[in-house]
Write a structure and sequence with these properties.
5-stranded mixed sheet; 385 residues; extended; 5-stranded antiparallel sheet
Length: 385
């Protein structure tokens, strides 16, 4: 009579098989995922090759230095430079390609960005498509600023400096850091609003000798602030921009880089300590007479706008540029493509002049789309009256 397996023996076999599975399955899964990502990268290389072939046949359409040209995968398929999904049931899907990493179509339509560098042309795949070959999408933040525009669902950002471009004369500015009812600490000599020089509008502030101008700022303890302005002067040392206390103690001083024939942006960030602070701009008492022009004064509480730990860098704020009052910006994370509905204020029209320091942007039917961005992408929407 044959003897069967005992319960202990069966349990032992099951445990051994389970251990083998625990070791083998993750390794197999990792290998398969790596293979899928490699196939995805290969597919992207085919797209870029197709774009290069298209470029070789359309040399007169290629961009000049400093310009950008884009071409989509669907266009390459239409023109016969790449094979789409010929077995698809719809004409639209026949202009698409399966992403081996996701087993779905690449979406949105992959776009190759063509730029000129010296004598060569660079072909780069947009960031959305490139990231689709990774384990998971990379979290990106994009900051968009619309001048004289409203961005739907945007985040409010306020320039605390009233009349920073001096278009309303001296409105908002004071020659004292204390209330009018208190003793004035001002030293006021020659200064006036001029139309001779300007940046954003028609006016700038023209300092000749020993003038201080102030505006009070709002900040809590440990708030991070960004402040700055644009200067043009004949004197290398003299004009200053700083944050000071009520008793004139300097909290943060900006070393002004100046130019005699053009306005130069000077900016800085600093951490507030909860004390009352003032934005202070002008010429020092011991400085020689000079023709000093200032314009586009700005101070933004980054912590109150973006939240602690999410504040933009000085360079990001420099790229956004000067604005007056409160504007709507868009700052979203965990997205590789951002679409915003943008409308102009009364009296303005939105143009398609959108400048990004990475990726590319389109503006169609009132919707702004930014693709191919990275963590440092900043775009500015320009508008014209």
């Amino acid at each position: 009579m044959k003897k069967g397996f005992t319960l202990a023996e069966l349990l032992g076999v099951i445990i051994v098989l389970a251990l083998i599975s625990m070791i083998a399955i993750p390794a197999i899964t990792t290998s398969l995922n790596k293979h899928k990502k490699n196939l995805c990268d290969t597919q992207i290389s085919y797209m870029i090759t197709a774009a290069r072939n298209w470029g070789a046949d359309h040399l007169l359409q290629l961009p000049d230095e400093g310009e950008t040209l884009t071409i989509t995968l669907s266009e390459l398929i239409k023109q016969g430079y790449m094979q789409g999904d010929s077995k698809a049931s719809t004409e639209e899907d026949k202009l698409k390609v399966i992403n081996p990493n996701t087993s779905e179509y690449f979406a949105p339509d992959p776009t190759i960005i063509i730029t000129k560098s010296g004598k060569n042309y660079l072909y780069t795949m947009d960031g959305v498509t490139t990231n689709s070959c990774k384990d998971s999408p990379t979290s990106y933040k994009v900051t968009l600023l619309g001048t004289h525009t409203h961005i739907e669902n945007g985040r409010s950002m306020t320039n605390q400096i009233v009349n920073g471009s001096f278009e309303d004369g001296e409105t908002g500015w004071s020659t004292s850091r204390v209330d009018e009812a208190e003793n004035s600490l001002a030293i006021t000599n020659t200064r006036f609003i001029t139309t001779e020089k300007s940046v954003s509008g028609l006016h700038s502030y023209h300092f000749v000798y020993t003038t201080w101008e102030y505006q009070k700022l709002t900040a809590n303890d440990q708030d991070k602030l960004y402040y700055g302005g644009k200067f043009m002067t004949e004197v290398k040392q003299g004009p200053f921009l700083q944050i000071s206390k009520k008793d004139a103690t300097t909290k943060s001083k900006l070393t002004v880089t100046v130019s005699p024939d053009k306005f130069t942006l000077n900016s800085k960030t600093f951490i507030a300590d909860g004390e009352a602070i003032y934005f202070q701009v002008g010429l020092c008492k011991s400085c020689s007479n000079s023709n000093t022009y200032v314009d586009d004064m700005i101070a933004v509480n980054l912590t109150q706008t973006f939240g602690a730990g999410n504040e933009p860098t000085k360079e990001e704020m420099d790229a956004i540029g000067w604005f007056d009052g409160t504007i709507q910006i868009a700052s979203k994370s965990d997205m590789n493509q951002v679409d915003f509905k943008v409308t102009a204020e009364e009296g303005y029209a939105i143009s398609n002049r959108i400048v990004c320091n990475s990726g590319y942007a389109t503006f169609e039917n009132g919707v702004l789309s930014v693709k191919g961005m990275n963590q440092d992408t900043i775009c500015r929407i320009e508008s014209v009256r």
